[in-house]
Write a structure and sequence with these properties.
With about 110 residues, the chain is α+β, with helices and mostly antiparallel strands. The chain has helices spanning about 5-20, 60-75, 85-90, and strands at about 25-30, 40-50, 80-85, 100-105. The radius of gyration is 13 Å and the shape is globular.
Length: about 110
């Protein structure tokens, strides 16, 4: 893994800690080309939330996604593609099979 990606993971971990992750979010992963290339075109993020969260303030998760995207863009000058899935959706799709690096919780 490149030094750039290590820096990005540390920056995102600090951002996550500073802003407080909503309690409905169970895991956050980096995946895609940003794990393999020295300077990626974008950053792919996967947010997994507790399945019942959609009934209990899903907007908080959307707000957090927007905040995270803005901070990634500001600190790296890269865009981000952030996917939000429930725990059930995560396991019902092929996302659980992807190569990825968990950044929350760490």
């Amino acid at each position: 893994m490149s030094k750039y990606i290590t820096m990005l993971e540390e920056m995102m971990s600090d951002t996550l800690l500073a802003d407080g992750v909503p309690s409905q979010i169970k895991s956050i992963f980096i995946f895609g080309s940003s794990l393999y290339v020295k300077i990626p075109n974008d950053i792919d993020i996967l947010i997994i939330y507790q399945s019942l969260a959609i009934e209990n303030n899903y907007n908080e998760i959307l707000d957090y996604r927007n905040l995270l995207a803005d901070k990634i863009n500001y600190m790296t000058n890269l865009t981000s593609d952030i996917i939000i899935l429930s725990e059930k959706e995560y396991f019902d799709t092929s996302y659980y099979k992807l190569s990825k690096k968990q950044i929350y919780p760490h």
